[in-house]
Amino acid sequence: MLRKKKDTNDVQIKSASTRSGRKSLVEARGHIRPSPSPTPKRKTSSNEKRKTSRIHLGRINYSVDCNEEEPEPTGPISQYDFFTAACCGKMKAITKFLDDGGDVNTVDSCNRTALHRAALYEQTQTAELLIRRGAKVNRCDKLNNIPLHWACRGTSFDMVQLLLNNRAKVNFKDKLLNTPLHVATRVGFTACVDYLLECGAKINEPDSEGDTAIHDAVRLGRHKVVRTLILHGADMFLKNKDGKTPTDLIQSWYNNVKDAVKQAELERKRKELNAQKLADEMRESSRFGEKLAVNEERRSEKSSEGLLTHGKMEEPTVIADKMENFQEDGVIFFKGGSNTN
């Protein structure tokens, strides 16, 4: 019976596997162990993408240098670049995207179009171009906001006027039943409030909490808006779902301000008392330190005059008499005898 001859490589592999784990079987064959594959990471977007996708959280400062001319786009314009161009007012990029067959009403993850973004960032020329190319003026996002809501947040009178001239619905409500008048009131956009009322905005329309525009203006302290709403006939006796009228809110606001002023005054007095107490403590500590310094000085003066023994001062001659031995002229005298060096 023929026996299979052992391969020398198998012997080397076996000997390598019996070692203290420093080499693996793959290393014994002369190959390099491949590095473990990296853990798949979650796909992340750039900061700019995250910013433009969170417009509802706040307004990002997109600025375009007026002296710098916009370059001609060379390649195709992506949807993200199209939205960014709408925020920045880059007309050539927008035109390139639309000429290449892009949809002017394309939406992002929040169902917002380029017109929503242009309305928020006060890009009136961009909005005019988008409307001419077929942008829907009353297109809703996920919160049921139309571009007119965002124009009121952006505080651009020209943008509000442009959208209303293109048949934007002045009394359109979002999911919280807020009209553009509610939004303009909350941001303190007095000129927009006046213009919306002239265009037919319902002044006493309630939101989901029963608050009208005058409720919001009083609660937020928008004094100019309150005056404008009263001149246009806002009802000061309408109750919200909490049973509060704007007059009640004014009284409540007055009481809150009064309590806040009183609390601030008490806090100021408390701080003054604490400061006075601290000053008194420091003054007492300084007096105590002065007393210690005087006592130390007196003690040093007494010790310089003589030796202190049991708390009493004695003359040096008395102390010398009490000494049992002393040295004089190289001879040490002891009690009862003498010894010479």
UniProtKB/TrEMBL annotation:
A Pfam family the protein falls into: Ank_2
Basic and acidic residues: bias regions: 281-304
Q: Is 4Fe-4S among the key words of this record?
A: no
The entry's keywords:
ANK repeat, Repeat
InterPro entries in alphabetical order: Ankyrin_rpt (IPR002110), Ankyrin_rpt-contain_sf (IPR036770)
Cite the repeat ranges for ANK.
110-142, 143-175, 176-208, 209-241
Compositional bias annotation for Polar residues: 10-19
Ranges for the region named Disordered are 1-54, 281-316
Q: What is the protein name stated in its UniProt record?
A: Uncharacterized protein
> What are the top taxonomic ranks of the organism?
Eukaryota, Metazoa, Chordata, Tunicata, Ascidiacea
